[in-house]
Amino acid sequence: MMRQPPPPRIKLLKLETERFILRSLTPADASERWASWLADPEVMGPVNTAPRSMTREDLARYTQRFDQQTRLLIGIFDRETKLHIGLYQIDVNPHHRTAKLNVIVGDKDFWGRKVVLETRAALLDHLFRSGVEKVIGSPLARNFPAVFNYKAQGWRLEGIMKGQVRHMHSNARLDQYEFGLLKDEWIALKKKAGA
Amino acid sequence: MSPTDVKAFVAEALQVDVAALADDLRIGGIDAWDSLAHMRLLTAIEERLGKPLDAETAAGIESLSDIQRVLA
């Protein structure tokens, strides 16, 4: 019988990219700034989540729901100002060696500045190094900026789920895409980009 | 819509000069085609068509030729 590689073991300490820092969020990161994104329809609408009011205490408790091994909550910080500008939520399935990624850039000053392309590249390197073999993303079909980021990064559109979720405020059903990327594909994409 | 018209249409949505658009330009192929520009572009296509793009069509928009096909 072929020996299996060990299951993914995510140990996120801190990742740095040219412009950003990625690190696990802790209760100390709970802030009015972060809470303001969750109350902003422009930020939450594209991910079909009703804006809601949360206190710093709520957010601090929220961070504790993440074991940072199979459920990761990772903040995106601007390197220059150290401001918290967004976050990733990542669910790792150790058995299937997959990771499902969700991202929100809450600080609208950073929209259209390729934050996701830059930071997710570093995360993919980290996840694949840690034993993950496939990553998955499921943006709503109407979330055009998110769809752009998957396509521009080279993820493969694996399917269109018709009427997959209910609209947050109505009975309308929304289409969702399923994007995927295998470790070998990511390595090939990086090689091609560097060629 | 002619290829020249498509280029002018895309240039306006991406807020760049037409000369910046190569014939074989693909999604994200120039700095100006970022996530917000992509949203402007698809919204402009919907306005031109007078209806929302369905998920299949929107998913297929990755190049100037795709846009020309959708707007044909």
What is the fold's blueprint, element by element?
The complex is a heterodimer of chains A (195) and B (72).
Chain A: E1 15-16, E2 20-24, H1 32-38, H2 41-44, H3 56-63, E3 71-78, E4 84-93, E5 98-105, H4 115-129, E6 134-137, H5 144-153, E7 156-166, E8 173-182, H6 183-194
Parallel strand pairs in A: 5-6
Antiparallel strand pairs in A: 1-2, 2-3, 3-4, 4-5, 6-8, 7-8
Chain B: H1 3-14, H2 35-49, H3 55-59, H4 64-71
Helix pairs in contact in B: 1-4
Q: Give the name of the CATH architecture of chain A.
A: 3-Layer(aba) Sandwich
Ranges of chain B where pLDDT stays below 50 over 5 or more residues in a row are none
Percent helix among the residues of chain A?
Answer: 25-40%
Main sheet of chain A?
8 strands, mixed
Gyration radius of chain B, to the nearest Å?
11 Å
Question: Can you give the mean pLDDT of chain B?
Answer: 95
According to CATH, the homologous superfamily of chain B is: ACP-like
Describe the global form of chain A.
globular
Q: Explain this structure to me?
A:
The complex is a heterodimer of chains A (195) and B (72). With 195 residues, chain A is α+β, with helices and mostly antiparallel strands. Chain A has a single domain (15-194), classed as Aminopeptidase. Chain A contains six helices and eight strands, in the order E-E-H-H-H-E-E-E-H-E-H-E-E-H. In chain A, a hairpin with a 3-residue loop joins strand 1 (15-16) and strand 2 (20-24). The longest helix of chain A is centred in the middle third of the chain and has 15 residues, at 115-129. The radius of gyration of chain A is 17 Å and the shape is globular. The model of chain A has no long low-confidence stretch (mean pLDDT 94). Chain B has 72 residues and is mainly α. Chain B has one domain: ACP-like (Non-ribosomal Peptide Synthetase Peptidyl Carrier Protein, Chain A, Orthogonal Bundle). In chain B, 56% of the residues lie in helices and 0% in strands. Chain B has helices at residues 3-14, 35-49, 55-59, 64-71. In chain B, helix 1 crosses helix 4.
